[in-house]
UniProtKB/TrEMBL annotation:
Signal sequence region: 1-23
Keyword check for Signal: yes
Protein name: Peptidase S10, serine carboxypeptidase, Alpha/Beta hydrolase fold protein
Native organism: Artemisia annua (Sweet wormwood)
Lineage top rank: taxon: Eukaryota
GO BP field: proteolysis; secondary metabolic process
Record key words, sorted: Carboxypeptidase, Hydrolase, Protease, Signal
GO molecular function, one term: serine-type carboxypeptidase activity
SUPFAM superfamilies: alpha/beta-Hydrolases
Family membership noted in the UniProt record: Belongs to the peptidase S10 family.
Length: 499
């Protein structure tokens, strides 16, 4: 769900050849990496769908064994966001064992290096391209190419059952369903289906212990609606805009009454302040056609698209020849955005997964919800408590609806004696839920002299407002916000800086 994307066609090549069985292979070398891979990488296809004899949906996956103790470490089933983002994105940009060496790479010579912060150092991770038509996954018929939130959740569980059947040595490992961004809404559904499957005595019985969600979407009203409060907390809109919008819109900033002119005007003021902000990380520059510097996600994605379309790379990954056209890092035609209607290929039929979370309360389930920077590079898609896509504010609202007793209050958590973020924990009858944020203070979030203190001091001057709260720019990028007061030749400008 990037801020500005160039749409690419939804391309699926329908195959009507003899059904291929599930296949897997060990990858020992990859173009761009010097020498043998120092970890175990398996790639393969697993077929899912209604027709068991002719598995018309073929999901491609990357499985990386834990580099610590693969026989004991947990298995993370990792669902990438969008929907429609390829699993290669987290594999190479976020939590996977490899990343691009940007300093030594160019289009004609792309170099890979080890990721020192990979989650595969302590966990077995299954990365999967979903749904069909994303990454290297494909469908054999047009009918099979159509998917939805609910279908994808069921297909994900079916994939897990079949994957574990082919990997029996991991039966006893703890399993955690993991989802990012939009796919966070499916995590509790897949988890609940797994618990229910165990109760139905489906084989194999999966050793599910819980789920992990990163900057997740959970409720399409609460999460989008929370952007207003988030924008106010981080000084993207003024107190005046915030209070006026709350009053006139009556707490609904998403499905607003089109006859409520005052509300619409206030929402327009909010949009004027935030439309040029990078929602994925409000401290990062917004990447577009006028700003394609190396630090931009779109610029670094060029490496991924060139690398993944290389025929030598596809042979190394054991991609079935002729199953897809040009590989794309994301299928933007099915990416969800606020109020987006269903497409011919995908139906967004789950509005909220809070009810599934409530059902998980009756299981012995561990839930971790985190807002964090997933990458040690500059192009992470998730940026802690500065991520405005699905703000942490919304999670606090829907977690409150679960009516869980508090087990540990809001407190700082540390990495090497430094505050890394904040956390709180809820627990009830064997189920526990932890909520964590990852923090980054700078600019208008400087704790030395908070902007709130400056606003209080300015208010004591009783100066008339000359220019209202608005963004100010440096080379087309929002650099901060300002407002101006003036009286009898005296003027005072109050500004924040977004560093």
């Amino acid at each position: 769900m990037g801020p500005k994307c160039i749409l690419v066609p939804f391309l699926i090549i329908f195959l009507r050849f003899i059904t291929l069985s599930n296949s897997k292979s060990i990858v020992t070398n990859l173009p761009g990496f010097n020498g043998d891979l120092p970890f175990t990488l398996e790639t393969g296809y697993i077929g899912v769908g209604e027709d068991e004899q002719d598995q018309q949906v073929q999901f491609f996956y990357y499985f990386v064994e834990s580099q610590r103790n693969p026989s004991k470490d947990p298995v993370l089933f990792y669902l990438t966001g969008g929907p429609g983002t390829s699993a290669l994105y987290p594999f190479l940009y976020q939590i996977g064992p490899l990343s691009f060496d940007f300093e030594r790479s160019w289009r004609g010579n792309i170099t890979l290096e080890l990721n020192p912060y990979s989650w595969t150092k302590v966990a077995n991770v299954i990365f999967i391209d979903t749904p069909a038509g994303v990454g290297f996954s494909y469908a054999k018929t047009w009918e099979a190419s159509r998917s939805s939130d609910s279908i994808l959740a069921l297909h994900s569980y079916e994939f897990l059952i079949k994957w574990f059947l082919e990997h029996p040595r991991f039966y006893s490992n703890p399993l955690y369903i993991t989802g990012v961004s939009y796919l966070g809404i499916l995590v509790p559904i897949v988890a609940l289906e797994t618990y229910n499957g165990n109760e139905r005595e489906n084989q194999p019985k999966l050793n599910i212990k819980g789920c992990l969600m990163v900057s997740p979407l959970t409720d399409k009203f609460i999460d989008f609606n929370s952007r207003l409060e988030f924008a106010h907390r981080l000084a993207l809109i003024s107190d005046d805009i915030y209070e006026s919008t709350k009053k006139t819109c009556h707490g609904n900033y998403v499905y607003n009454d089109m006859d409520n002119i005052l509300c619409l005007k206030n929402l327009q003021r909010v949009d004027e302040c935030t439309s040029e902000i990078n929602l994925l990380n409000i401290l990062e520059p917004l990447c577009n056609a006028t700003n394609m510097e190396p630090t931009c996600r779109e610029a670094t994605n060029i490496f991924l698209n060139v690398w993944a379309n290389d025929k030598d790379v596809q042979r190394a990954l054991n991609i079935r020849e002729g199953t897809i056209g040009r590989w794309e890092s994301s299928n933007t035609s099915i990416h969800y955005k606020l109020k987006k209607s269903d497409t011919i290929y995908y139906s967004y039929d789950v509005f909220s997964s809070i009810a599934y979370h409530k059902q998980l309360l009756t299981r012995n389930c561990r839930v971790l919800i985190i807002w964090c920077n997933l990458s040690h590079k500059t192009n992470s898609n998730f940026s802690g408590d500065h991520d405005m896509t699905f703000p942490y504010v919304g999670a606090k609202i829907w977690i409150a609806t679960l009516n869980l007793p508090l087990d540990s209050p809001w407190e700082a958590w540390f990495v090497r004696t430094q505050v890394a973020g904040y956390k709180m924990k809820y627990a009830q009858s064997g189920c526990n839920l932890s909520h964590k944020t990852n923090s980054n203070f700078s600019g208008d979030h400087d704790m030395t002299f908070p902007y709130v203190g400056a606003k209080i001091w300015i208010a004591t001057l009783n100066l008339p407002l000359d220019s209202p709260w608005e963004a100010w720019f440096v080379r087309t990028q929002v650099a901060g916000y300002k407002m101006k007061y003036a009286q009898s030749g005296y003027s005072l400008t109050y500004a924040t800086i977004k560093v």
